[in-house]
Amino acid sequence: MSSLLNLVSLRSDYREPSQSRVISSTILPPPSSISTNSPTGSLTYSQGLTKVQCEIYGPTLDPADRQPAVPTDPSSPTAPLTVTLSLPLSPSNPSKHLTYTLSSSTPPPLTSSVSSHTSSSLLQSYCLSIYRVFSKVVFGVGVRNRVEIRLKVFNDDGSLLSTLINASTLALATSAIPLTSLPISTTTAIFSPTVTQKSGTSTSNNKRSRSGGTVGGKGGMSGKKVTLIDLNLEEELSSGVDSYMVVVFDDDGCLMCKMENRVEVGRFRGMVGEAEGGCREVRGEVEGIMRDWARGLFERREGDGRGLQLLKGRVVGK
Question: In Å, what is the CA distance from 171 to each residue of 5, 27, 52, 74, 155?
Answer without folding.
Answer: 34, 8, 11, 25, 18
